[in-house]
Amino acid sequence: MSQIETMSKPEGPDGPRMYSEEIIVAPSKTNIEMANFETAVSATGFGKFNIFLLLVAIPSAMSPVFESSTMSYVLPVAQCDLNLTLQDKGILNAMGFGGMIASGLIWGYLCDTLGRKKLIMAGFLLDGFFILLSSTSQSFMFLMVVKFFGGFM
Questions:
Q1: Residue 28 located in a structural domain
Q2: Can you give the residue ranges of the Major facilitator superfamily (MFS) profile domain (predicted)?
């Protein structure tokens, strides 16, 4: 098990410094070795896990971008097909953001209590489901509701 010790910095030219540095203490059988954060990270190295984490994190970061920017491609066609007014187009554009705002606190609480991994997986699956539903929309109201729940995920 590792312990964390707090050490005060020495006084500087302007007087005593009020912050501290965390040092990770790794106990061993013979003596206790101290390492700072950079030493601990360099000791673990860079490998398959880091590459896998990047491959998972990049699509995760792009998901909200796709959710919010796809309407710019859909609106010109939907304007003719669904007879949308300028106000209707604004509402459709805002529904995804409204869902994101409405669900922020809920998802934060659920992730803290139930675990992030399960909820991220479920959220991505549900988001994909709502995107597929929005692609089959034939009415303004259905598209509006589906875009809200797509943002909610």
A1: yes
A2: 53-153
